[in-house]
Amino acid sequence: MHKRNLTREKIILVSFCLADEIGINQLNFQKIAEKLDVKYPSLYNHFNNMDELKIEMTVYMLNEMNQKLMHRLIGKSGYDAIREYASVYKEFAFENKTAYKLFINIPSTKNNELFNLMRKITHIIHEILKSYIKDEILLVHKSRTLRSLLHGFISLYSFGYFQGDVDLEDTFKSMIDDFISSLNK
Predict the structure, then answer these.
(1) Cα gap 57→63, rounded to integer Å
(2) DSSP per-residue string spanning 104-158
(3) Domain named HTH tetR-type: which ranges (predicted)?
(4) What is the largest CA-CA distance in the chain?
(5) Which residues contact 96 (CB under 8 A, 6 or more apart)?
(6) How far apart are CA 113 and CA 103, in angstroms?
(7) How many C-beta neighbours within 10 Å does residue 80 have?
(8) Taking 70 as the threshold, does the pLDDT of residue 1 lie above it?
């Protein structure tokens, strides 16, 4: 690959692929440059350091997740929208394990674009829940509850805690149904 073909997006996509192979903590500019067949100093023309690259990788991933959420939520409302939101979130995390791990471990939300994307994900669930919850404080609590349930489920599954004969999807459905039931109290 020639330098003139090197873009931020190409670096980000190759970084995700490489991180899937070697782990996000092993990722560095030298390894990324080897994969891209460029000299590693040329990466500094696009990113100041690894922290900036990881933040931009997270921004890229959140944009992808938001697009998927918006696409799959079209025409859905109520309980169906809650179930779809939960399914998309889980599916995205399972399909993009490295990206999700990066998202959960990103050191800071001082990046405005990253902060706004994270708020957008929160806004989506707030909009869905507003038809059930009028109190703003309770809305925040229920939004946090749902996001915590999703993250906990994904994390426990990723660590290998969900073994045995009970179907994983049945467990997930039961968890979301319990959350939905809590909205009627």
Answers:
(1) 10
(2) HH-S---SHHHHHHHHHHHHHHHHHHTTT---HHHHHHHHHHHHHHHHHHHHHHH
(3) 5-65
(4) 61
(5) 16, 61, 64
(6) 13
(7) 12
(8) no
Q: Which residue, chain included where needed, has tokens 């999700």?
A: 100
**Helix (H), strand (E), coil (C) string for the chain:** CCHHHCCHHHHHHHHHHHHHHHCHHHCCHHHHHHHHCCCHHHHHHCCCCHHHHHHHHHHHHHHHHHHHHHHHHCCCCHHHHHHHHHHHHHHHHHHCHHHHHHHHHCCCCCCHHHHHHHHHHHHHHHHHHCCCCCCHHHHHHHHHHHHHHHHHHHHHHHCCCCCCCCCHHHHHHHHHHHHHHHHCC
Q: Which domains does the chain have, with CATH numbers?
A: 1-47 (1.10.10.60), 50-182 (1.10.357.10)
CA 184, CA 128: separation in Å to the nearest integer?
Answer: 14
**pLDDT by residue (tens digit) across 13-50?**
999 999 999 988 899 999 999 999 999 899 999 999 99
